[in-house]
Amino acid sequence: MATLSEIASLRTSLADEAVAHLHRLVAAWSLLADLSFSDMFLVAPDGHHDYVVLAQVRPNNRATMLVDDLVGTTQTSSRWPLIASAFESKKVVKGETHLEGVDEEVPNWIIPVGFNGEMIAALVRVQGPLRGPASAYETVYLDIFDRFCQMVGDATFPYRESDVAGPGFPRVGDGIILIDERGLVEFSTPNATNALHRLGLYKTTEGRSLKEMGLHVRELERAKEYAMPRREDVARGDVAIDFLCAPLLAHGAVTGVMVIVRDVSELKRLDRQITSKDAAIREVHHRVKNNLQTVSSLLKLQARRSEESVVRTALLEAERRIRSIAVVHEVLSREPGDVVEFSEIIPSLVTMVEESEFGPHEVEIFVDGDLGSLPTDIATPLAIVLAEIMMNAAEHAFLDFTSTDVGVITVTLRTLKNQYVAEVRDNGRGLDANFSLEVPHSLGLSIVRDLVRNQLRGTIVMQSAPEGEGTGTSVVIRVPQTS
Fold first, then answer.
1. Are 141 and 80 in contact (CB under 8 A)?
2. Do domains 4-154 and 339-483 have the same CATH topology?
């Protein structure tokens, strides 16, 4: 289905700024549909004396009257003469129309959509039947909707810098408190009254301010002062109520505030549980990191006290591998979860290799690309593998270099065809002619091979640079992405 922008671009002469205004309107107009208990669709002139439908919304509190999707269709002037009347008069036009499958004519309003002093589009409201005589709260809803219609024509709705509808926002059915221009409550729906009761406010609301009742909603005052929607959570004990304060304007002046309230006590409780759980997970990773660093320090201290070079080397290699694991837990201690940003791990691994005591020659390490977010069960062994390969290159690849030669190690990371691909290349002397990864001559390469094949379920290819591509060694690791 074509988007509003695509339809407007192809079939209307609307400027980009006008289309952006209509986008903001469509983002918030579920509020209007619920207040009016009506289906609505948005039309704009198509340049041929007819109208193209740019968007459509259905109410959440009434059955739809428009079963078909009208977006992208052309509505003729002869079919909708009221639309033509609205564009001619630039005023709200009310009447009735016949809908297919409905025996009686259905009430509808044509509401001008203003922007920069012009009428750029129209909202068509198709009103469904009310269930008997309108109740007090339905009457209030329709009165508020009527006030919003004027704001749509004046281009003061949608609000330019704030949203009032969409995922995460209170909805009309959650409860409404209507505040007049003096700050006094005109009306409170039953759901809104129940929300106030949960906050411990049992006094009659009509004719009194919320502050007088003992409830200070700071954002309500700001909504009146700045003529912009404001939002605030008010909590008392275990009860939390979300207040969305939307100012009602006439000719640019605030004439009241519609406050939509929603009980978010359960959401806040779940948020506290999640926050507590995240804090506990962070603490676990922090302690694991500290313990690993303690072990690492002990191994390094023991290595320095050892008089046997073989023992000292083995202890330092073990210390480095433990530190590689600690790097992952350090990142997880900041952002707990099942995934970790690998770009936060790589710099620590590079620094660890560059500061190592093994390499006989100073090397430069460059990293290109990124693997994005990795599951921890991939990130941890892969960090050990890359550290081991870089260290192996730093230790063995540049033995033939002179003091003026520069040893370079390049790490290239990318995702390709549902795989994580990591390549480590150096410009060193390359591999011996009889080298085989199946019969490695070092513990480090044995660890690398087993981690890649058994734990990561991947593949590793280690070979001298192909002829024509310079000298050195290339190690390519491919790890399948988990679903």
1. no
2. no
